[in-house]
Structure formats: structure tokens, C-alpha cells
Amino acid sequence: MKPEVSRVTVEIGGSEISFETGKLAKQASGSVVVQSGDTMVLSTATAGNLRDVDFLPLTVDVEERMYAAGKIPGSFFKREGRSGEKGTLTARMIDRPIRPLFPKGWRRVRRSSCRSPCRSITWCPTTSSR
């Protein structure tokens, strides 16, 4: 059975934004690719095992890759390291509004990840601004 690919395109503030699901990250519980111009963000979410804890086990990761903007690190650290301050703050901006949306008593490990595989030089995906 072939998975169904859904695509919705809307215009916001004079720029066209498209949302596509069902094509990438098929092993995740849910995924969406958001695209505006040359910038693309892949966001995935997974639900894991039950945990015996008294808090909501939610992890949000935002991975900013320099190669997406055409910048290859050439210093001692050739590979991309951990998230910078901007990635951490963006992850918090995602975490804080969605945390209250989960039902009381939800104890499954929840992980959300956002990656930018390609990026325009003029548009920043973390702030949705030019």
C-alpha cells in the first residue's frame, strides 16, 4: 500500500508557505516538511514507551546545520557540534506552547526534532523572518 502524501499551501504576509506530510520520515509517529522559498524545515515527532514519572517527558531538539546555508565549518571543529544558543532558545519556543496541550497523565516519552536540510540566505527558519 502506497502512503498518501498531503500538501497544503497558504499565503501569509505575501510569501507562500507549503506544508507536506507523508513523504519523509516514515518511521516517526508524525512528520511535516514546511517550505517557504528555498528554505525547508523537517519536523518530526515520536511517542515512546510509558515511564513511571510525575512529569511530562518531552524533549524538543532544533538542529541548525551550517551546510544548509552553504557554510562549511573550516576550523578545528570540522563537524557540526551541539546546538548553539539560538537553537536552544528556538527549542524552548517550541516546547513551552505545546507542553500544556498534552492531556494530564500523559507519561509516554515524547521527542520532537526540527532540522533545516536547505536554507535560503535571506530567510531564517527559526524566527520566520527575513
Order of helix and strand elements from N to C terminus: EEEEEHE
Output the strand order for the largest sheet: 1-2-3-4-6-5
Query: How many β-strands, per DSSP?
Result: 6
Q: How many separate helices?
A: 1
Helix content: 10-25%
CATH homologous superfamily designation: GHMP Kinase, N-terminal domain
Mean pLDDT: 79
- Kindly report the CATH topology: Ribosomal Protein S5, domain 2
- How many domains is the backbone divided into? 1
- Strand percentage: 35-45%
Uncertain runs are none
Give the second-level CATH assignment, the architecture.
2-Layer Sandwich
Radius of gyration: 16 Å
Summarize the structure.
The protein is mainly β. It has one helix spanning 85-98, and strands at 6-12, 15-21, 30-36, 39-50, 58-63, 108-118.
Task: Please explain how this structure is put together.
- The chain has one domain (6-118): Ribosomal Protein S5, domain 2, CATH 3.30.230.70.
- 11% of the residues lie in helices and 38% in strands.
- The protein contains one helix and six strands; from the N terminus they run βββββαβ.
- It has one helix at residues 85-98; strands spanning 6-12, 15-21, 30-36, 39-50, 58-63, 108-118.
- A six-stranded mixed sheet has the order 1-2-3-4-6-5.
- The longest helix is centred in the C-terminal third of the chain and has 14 residues, at 85-98.
- The chain starts with 5 loop residues before the first strand and ends in a 12-residue tail after the last strand.
- The mean pLDDT is 79.
